[in-house]
Amino acid sequence: MFREKMSRRSFLQNTGKAALGGGLLMAVGGMIEKPKFGFSATKKGDDLWRQYAGTKLIFMSENTPPSSAIKARAKEFFDLTGMEIDIRQDVLSTVQEKCGIDLKGGSTAYHLNYAQDKPMGTIFADYWADMKDFMTDSTLPQDPEGYGDDKWGYRWLDVCGRFYGEDKIVALPYDNAVAVMFYRKDLFEKYTKEFEKEFGYPLQYTDNTTWKNMLDFMKFFNKGKYNVEYGYGFQGLEGWAGQLDFQRPLFAHGQWQEWEMEDQFVGTRNPGPCKWGDDQSIMSLTKMKDLYKSAHPESLSWDWSGVNNAFQTGKVAMCVNYGEFAATVEDPKQSVAAGGKVGYGMDPKGEPSWIVNGGQAVNATNYGIGGIAINGNLSKDLQRASYIFAMWATSKKLQKLVLETLGGTPTRMSVLNDPDVVKGMKRPTTMPNALTYPATLKGCKPPHVVPGPKIPKWNEYATIQCIEIARCMAGKQSPEATAKSLKKKLDQIHGV
Prior knowledge:
The protein is α/β, with parallel strands linked by helices and about 500 residues long. Helix content is about 40%, strand content about 10%.
């Protein structure tokens, strides 16, 4: 397993534990005492919500805005259901480790898991309960909107809930983190004439801005005389942050991906031979080397939180990051970029002259869709009780409240289309994260969206790729040698 230095949202502070009612069952040695359910299939209305009153549920989650916001509303869940929800938060690598020990060991320490699609779902989907039967069970409370694919962002239910073609839904979408461009619009406007004198075109960021244009932007701002230290910052060379950062320029040029799969959104258990070593992979690595060489040198050791800190402290004029970081970027107490200085756009487009595979130039956009999954080791009754929480936590009402309080990341289209939220997508706004949603909604659909490989050996793949590409970006290995080494190692772990 690879380890990340920091959660992508660990800069957010928990909002504190809400007061909880008394008389609840407590964990004993990591196990939950069996509740007295008193359930009857004929009960309706509020009784459906309270059929498991007296149960304590434990949700192991990453440090995310929705988790922090819902933790502050634990009493509301208790008042509605009579159940206590204990939300425990940590960095994603620790969540992965703790949940893995619990699930694979046949234990039930954590009733609910944060189902991040790649680091969690690719490994643990087989250990999570199938929610499909619960979704149509009239003896359970149900979301009035339902759970159809069209109720969420584009294929978000597939990304976190379906794996390897199995006829199961193992998670409900809970938290979206879609990559968008953050750029200092104020500096672009202030220095556009100087830039145009040197490069022959305006200093503007649009949906048609290519990675080649980004090199020009970097060269201009890297002079250190335009109120920032450097033009651009990457998300480092390690872990999931690095893998996602590499994926964007790779896919932007000819929609290149490591493997050919029938459906990238649900993945495959047997990916077969990878495409590393082909002409496009070598070309893209060659150009990426120029990009990384021109970026802020410290960014080789950053992650998503590191690059966010650099952007809001004025170290860089541009970065690709996840929309949830707008909440701190727009906060004048934390950011020199606050006060309407930032623009948000789609990720950079591929440069046609850098494409040799005949593919399309796209604004490569990737994301992580975190879901809520249920431990498959639980008894059927505890699975049902856990489902009630997962359904409640992913409802429109809760998602909108999370957005309004902590700058959360809604997954339901009803929230993204809500009139108040649509209004908040333009300045002035009380929902700073909503400023990123126009770019989010354009980028997370074909042809731009790149879900990334969903394979059982995802962690091994990410580790190998990060190590090899880091060597290339540091000048220790040529692009061609790197592509060939990746081909050999990734094929080897898959028995090719």
